[in-house]
Design a protein that fits this description.
By secondary structure, this protein is of the alpha/beta class. It folds into 2 domains: 3-124 and 313-349, ATPase, nucleotide binding domain (Nucleotidyltransferase, domain 5), CATH 3.30.420; 135-309, Nucleotidyltransferase, domain 5, CATH 3.30.420.40. It is 38% helix and 21% strand. The chain contains 10 helices and 12 strands. Strands 3-2-1-4-5 form a 5-stranded mixed beta sheet, with helices on both faces. It has a 5-stranded mixed beta sheet with strand order 8-7-6-11-12, sandwiched between helices. It has a two-stranded antiparallel ribbon with strand order 9-10. Strand 2 (13-20) and strand 3 form a beta hairpin. Helix 4 packs across helix 10 (319-330).
Length: 353
């Protein structure tokens, strides 16, 4: 049995977990900064890194206590080293390096995107078998939208990725356009529940012949609709622009139409990839995988089993980092003490040849 202390600080969640054998969660502690960043309408990188410094010691201690473990019970220390915000990543990596060095334990650097993928391997129900190979995984979050062929443990191939905005990023930007709260994903989902998804005909970037995505055109289309409901007046001195509402923006209908446009493309591309590569299962991971419409549409339209992590494993957490770390540990892929952060790390830079 291998017990790994995992640390995740890639963005605005300070997290630590103790995971055994890559499947069993003994503890999974997350300190969220969402209330702090809400006032900015998005993540403020410098604030995020400072909050990690403040929260991480307590989060790590809580993870050990929650697992009923002591330092001597650990076999390795794992940490996210990319992708993510440089300042945030540095906090976690330096903490992990210090712990590993002081305890004489192996240090394991983990790709954050692989962590999201491996959230599907964490057992929350012992009766549910682990995913089968090959699988196609849709990783969809605030910063990333990728389709991945998973041939085996640590053996994956990126089939396609977004050419511009990630789906979660598009949710945040569109929510801001419509005057909704941050983060945009939950806000748009809540607004869409009372709306008609067919109220607005919004574009879908199909990008035929590829498994890539694009959401910038969709975002622009929503902007144009919002502008139609506003009257922009330039002051005589050209010193200010005043926006006056012509009449109430149909937020619920626009939110529902936008959400369905995003989900439609995500589901279509994923199902195409699964069929093309004869995948045994479809996996979904990342923060946007918490979206109820995405879960429902993927399950309804896929011609093979669909697996989605429970909600608490969709957003950033350290248990998913521990899941990947177990397989890296077994493969002898440990890091040195000069491990550095790679903010733009790609998933296909952390895979077998």
């Amino acid at each position: 049995m291998t017990k790994i202390l995992a640390i995740e600080t890639s963005c605005d969640e300070t997290a630590a977990a103790v995971v055994e054998d890559g499947y069993h969660i003994h503890s999974n502690v997350v300190a969220s900064q969402v209330d702090i960043h809400r006032r900015y309408g998005g993540i403020f990188p410098e604030v995020a890194s400072r909050q990690h410094i403040l929260a991480l010691p307590t989060v790590i201690q809580d993870a050990l206590s929650g697992a009923g473990a002591d330092w001597k019970d650990l076999d390795a220390v794992a940490v996210t080293y990319g992708p993510g915000l440089a300042g945030s990543l540095l906090v976690g990596v330096n903490a992990a390096k210090g712990i590993a060095l002081s305890l004489g334990l192996p240090l394991i650097g983990v790709n954050h995107l692989a962590g999201h993928l491996y959230s599907n391997w964490l057992k929350t129900n012992h009766e549910v078998p682990v995913p089968s190979f090959p699988s196609v995984c849709l990783i969809v979050s605030g910063g990333h939208t990728e389709l991945v062929l998973v041939r085996g443990h640590l053996d994956y191939q990126v089939l396609g990725r977004t050419l511009d905005d990630a789906a979660g990023e598009a949710f945040d930007k569109v929510a801001r356009l419509m005057g909704l709260d941050y983060p945009g994903g939950p806000a748009i989902q809540a607004a869409a529940e009372k709306g008609n998804a067919k109220a607005f005909e919004l574009p879908r970037a199909r990008l035929r012949g590829t498994f890539d995505f694009s959401f910038s055109g969709l975002k622009t289309a929503v902007l144009r609709i919002v502008q139609r409901y506003m009257n922009t007046i330039q002051s005589p001195a050209n010193t200010a622009v005043i926006q006056l509402p012509l009449h109430s923006l149909p937020v619920a209908n626009l939110a529902a139409s936008f959400q369905m446009a995003v989900v439609d493309v995500l589901v279509e591309k994923t199902c195409e990839a699964a069929k093309h590569f004869d995948a045994a299962e479809i996996l979904i991971a990342g923060g946007v995988s918490a979206n109820a419409s995405l879960r429902h549409e993927m399950t309804a339209r896929a011609d093979r089993p669909v697996r989605v992590p429970p909600l608490f494993l969709c957003t950033d957490n350290a248990a998913m980092i521990g899941a990947v770390a177990h397989h890296l540990f077994l493969a002898g892929e440990c890091a040195r003490q000069d491990l550095d952060v790679i903010p733009n790390l790609r998933l296909d830079e952390n895979t077998k040849s």
